[in-house]
Amino acid sequence: MKNKIDLLTNFATPIWLMRLKNVSSLNKELLNFFYEQKKINPKGIERSSLFGWHSQDYVGGEIYKIKPYKNFFERIAPLVQRVSDDMGWDRKNYTPSITSTWGIINPPYASNWSHIHHNNIVSAAYYVQWPTNGGGFVAQDPRNDALYYRPSYKEVKPLNVQQVTIEPQTGLIAMFPSYLRHRVEPNMSKKDRVIISFNINLIPLKN
Ligand SMILES: [Fe+2]
Predict the structure, then answer these.
(1) Cα–ligand 1 centroid distance for 4 (angstroms)
(2) Domain containing residue 180: CATH number
(3) Contact 136/186 with Cβ under 8 angstroms?
(4) Mean pLDDT across the stretch 161-187?
(5) How far away, in angstroms, is 159 Cα from ligand 1 center?
(6) Which domain range does residue 115 map to?
(7) CA–CA gap between residue 90 and residue 70 (Å, rounded)
(8) 196 C-alpha vs ligand 1 centroid, how far in Å?
(9) Which residues make beta-bridge pairs with 115?
(10) How many whole angstroms from 160 Cα to the centroid of ligand 1?
(11) pLDDT by residue (tens digit) across 9-44?
(12) Separation of 117 CA from ligand 1 center, angstroms?
């Protein structure tokens, strides 16, 4: 008689992916906005982008002054709902709120070095323009203690993988816990790759 074996896969690190359809006019508006911002502030600010341009952070009321964001937020509302459901957030007492957003324009060979998004619960990257060979989004195992011992494996499986590479596409949005360390490979295409990114936190609702 065989004994039953259960496998518990707690402490999972989720990455949600949603592909938005019919994005050409939305993306055009987003591109216009951020290329305009780049003209105004060509240096941008220094963050994860290596040889690329990083916009200022937009926070609070500034976020909602970015015209195409209204449409964008409506389009991604089902994703935020899904994340909220999967994570079991207490929506009676807390509301997920976008705390900051920014855009990145990475020309050929630019990349993003490894980083996390401090002091937030989930973060996202939306690929506004992602050329072929634009580079992969590489998420690294956030469980430091699990990296202590690495025997050789005969095959890569979800339970032994050390990093996961996602191939972005224009119109894809990736959402992940803010503690998830990630980097983006160099843009090996001949075109700019453009993303917008934002952070979400849970804000207490007042009674
Ligand atoms: Fe990031």
Answers:
(1) 42
(2) 2.60.120.620
(3) no
(4) 97
(5) 24
(6) 16-204
(7) 25
(8) 10
(9) 182
(10) 23
(11) 999 999 999 999 999 999 999 999 999 999 999 998
(12) 6
Distance of CA 8 to the CA centre of its chain: 27
Any domain includes 174: yes
3-class SS letters over 123-146: EEEEEEECCCCCCCEEEECCCHHH
Expressed in angstroms, the distance from the first to the final Cα of the chain is: 58
- Give me ligand 1 centre to Cα 71, in Å: 22
DSSP 8-state assignment for residue 173 = E
Q: What is the rounded distance in angstroms from the CA atom of residue 21 to the CA atom of residue 194?
A: 18
Q: How far is the CA of 65 from the centre of ligand 1 (A)?
A: 23
The CA-atom distances, in angstroms, between 2 and each of 5, 163 are 9, 35
Supply the pLDDT for residue 36: 97
Residue 141 lies in a domain: yes
Q: How many domains does the chain have?
A: 1
H helix intervals, the chain: 24-40, 67-87
Average pLDDT for 146-154: 88
Rg (C-alpha) for the chain, rounded Å, is 19
Query: How much distance in Å is there from the Cα of 62 to the middle of ligand 1?
Result: 20
Q: What is the pLDDT of residue 144?
A: 87
Q: Which residue has tokens 């994340």? A: 83
Domain-located, residue 11: no
Residue 65 falls within a domain, yes or no?
Answer: yes
